[in-house]
Design goal:
mainly alpha; binds protoporphyrin IX containing FE; Globin-like; 60% helix; globular
């Protein structure tokens, strides 16, 4: 179901996942690496990550996004069902934390050259996912 939702119509006859359309794993690694450069110096978000060097956190987000957009389901195999809202409950995510997350993701995405329609599609999802994870007024 999710897979079908994320298929984009490339031509009248051929459908391709966004994962393939943006160039696969390399794109997602770049996006998430850039995002974590911002996290590293964020005084509110950085302390939430218990992981010392952010290696695991980086890997989990990369795998999740790849899977969501039609790439390999390694995230599911390693971590099980995403349950993102539940997994974020231990952290205080208020409007400020959400906006900081969005800010760093925007900074990273804007560094990458890509098709603008795909960028919009990805961006709309990321912003709405960030809004859905707010758990503190
Ligand atoms: C709204 C602001 C957000 C904050 C403050 C936040 C913060 C965090 C933190 C602190 C972790 C734990 C990392 C660790 O293991 O050390 C985490 C994990 C994760 N986050 Fe977020 N996050 C946010 C939004 C999002 C969004 C929008 C997505 C997806 C589009 C996302 C996807 C994930 C994933 C996949 C993990 C790893 C889950 C696992 O397998 O354990 N996060 N996040």
């Amino acid at each position: 179901m999710r897979k079908a939702k994320n298929l984009i119509r490339q031509t009248r006859y051929v459908e391709q996942s966004l994962f393939d359309a943006v160039g696969g794993e390399e794109f997602f690694v770049k996006l998430v690496d850039g995002f974590y450069v911002g996290i590293e110096s964020d005084e509110v978000l950085r302390p939430m990550y218990v992981d010392q060097d952010l290696t695991e956190a980086r890997r989990h987000l990369t795998l999740f996004l790849q899977q969501y957009w039609g790439g390999p389901s390694t995230y599911q195999a390693e971590r099980g069902h995403p349950r993102l809202r539940m997994r974020h409950m231990p952290f205080v995510i208020d409007g400020d934390a959400r906006d900081r997350w969005i800010y760093h993701m925007h900074a990273s995405l804007s560094q990458i050259e890509m098709d603008e329609a795909l960028r919009d599609q990805l961006w709309t999802y990321l912003v709405s996912a960030a809004h859905s994870l707010v758990n503190t007024p």
